[in-house]
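Extended Data, panel c. Modelled sequence:
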Amino acid sequence: MKNTNLIKITYAGLMAALCYVGYAVFPAISASGTKVHIGNAFVVLGALLLGGPYGGLAGAIGLSLADILGGYAASAPRTFICKLVIGLIVGLVAHKIAHISQDHQKSYILKWSSIAAIAALAFNCVFEPALKYVWFTLLTPNAEKAQSAITALLAVTTYATIINAVINSVIAIVLYSALRPALNKAGIFPSVGKTEAQKAA
């Protein structure tokens, strides 16, 4: 059990670092204010490998740190919440519902890892502007930013957010599909068991 926890903590640290690197690869800001990056792919990958809590926290820490170091410290608390939620949704779908870390056919793993990634990142397309609207309406009132958020929310999302979601989903699914057999063969696949799966949401 101690070795399993140590492996998961090590992987979580790696995922947090990769989230930061993924953010730094495309540090662009779209006209709508959306950050264009591939950090979310590693949030999803972390949750697919480790379960929702570990993956979500790794992404939340890595991308919040990226916000702080990148000069967007004010958005770090919202980033933390959004990335944690992404991880928890992936954990819910992939591990609590589908139990993908158990033995299954490749087609089953591909199907459910895809569903988990798409569900989490699609939810984030709505959740992120909704949270931003609530944030700038109730917590730190700013009429201009709140209006910008509600505009994005009413439009469902911006093209940049959709592109982000699609690219990050594809990257996460491809990486998980490649890493799973390699880690299994090496005997270091961080399997999420039944007890852990119940906590993965």
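The two ends are 21 Å apart (CA to CA). This feature is highlighted in the accompanying rendering.
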